[in-house]
Amino acid sequence: MYQEESYDVLRLIEHGQICYISSDNVRGKTLARYLKYHPVMEKEELFSMLKDIAGQLELIHRCRGNPCYQYVNPYSIIVAEDGHIYFLDMQAESNKEQLVFMQRRYIREYFLPPEEKYYQHASIELDIYGLGKTIQYILASAESEPHLNKREEHRLKRLISKAMGAHSSQYQNVSEIQKQIPRYKEKVKKKSYENKIRGKVFVTLLLAVVAGGGGVFLKREIKGGKIKKKK
Question: How much helix, strand and coil, in percent to the nearest 5, is found in the chain?
């Protein structure tokens, strides 16, 4: 069984429309490692995770000076013990090893567009591209329970495609992506609901018939003289 490790992460504090960045240390695991040990996720958790990742990145972009994160991939995102999502503090000395790891070729080639060979530029467009690839990675690594329906699949595929598209067709900001992430709604099957209602009606009618039948039987017994009044 894997053990959770300690990471220095960014703690984002909202103050009106502005966000401030501070540092924190949490126990948890990288998103890539979390998915390895959680190949099946409840659909509600899956959608919540996607929204939280996008939400954290959107807060980073709202901080003073409009900074970009630059290293958006499953190895820079931490799932804490309490389930909260954080981004690694890439300025922390403790994360230097993780930074070197993310410079590996297969990671760069998957989470950066073809024209970007290294993590050497920072922009909102590249962060959005990385977010799209990260969402694609999550959907490829984990199976939701219940399964995604066709509408949800189509919506997420369109989101990923647009996030990874050309600058002219790409999302302008992360908040646009947040709006496109499906919401979890637990549906009650109409047929089983109707059967449940019919069952309640049947039981009610049965009790009424039993009660009514018992009354008729009692009256017949009295009328027949089998039950006599005591003197």
Answer: 50, 15, 35
Contact between 5 and 27 under an 8 Å Cβ cutoff? The reply is: yes
Confidence of residue 29 (pLDDT cuts 50, 70, 90): very high
User: Counting every residue, how long is the chain?
Assistant: 231
In a 13 Å sphere around the CA of 120, the CA atoms on its Cβ side amount to 4
φ and ψ at residue 21, rounded to 5 degrees = -105, 130
**pTM score of the predicted model:** 0.79
Instruction: State the Cα–Cα distance between residues 25 and 80, nearest whole angstrom.
Output: 10
Question: What is the helix (H) or strand (E) element at residue 63, kind and residue range?
Answer: none
Strands 143-145 and 40-42: what pairing? parallel
Q: What is the pLDDT of residues 2-15, one digit of tens each?
A: 568 999 999 999 88
Q: What spatial distance separates the first Cα and last Cα of the chain, rounded to whole Å?
A: 84
At residue 11, φ and ψ (nearest 5 deg) are -105, 120
Q: Which segments of the chain does DSSP mark as H helices, in order?
A: 31-37, 43-61, 96-102, 105-111, 124-141, 150-163, 174-180, 190-223
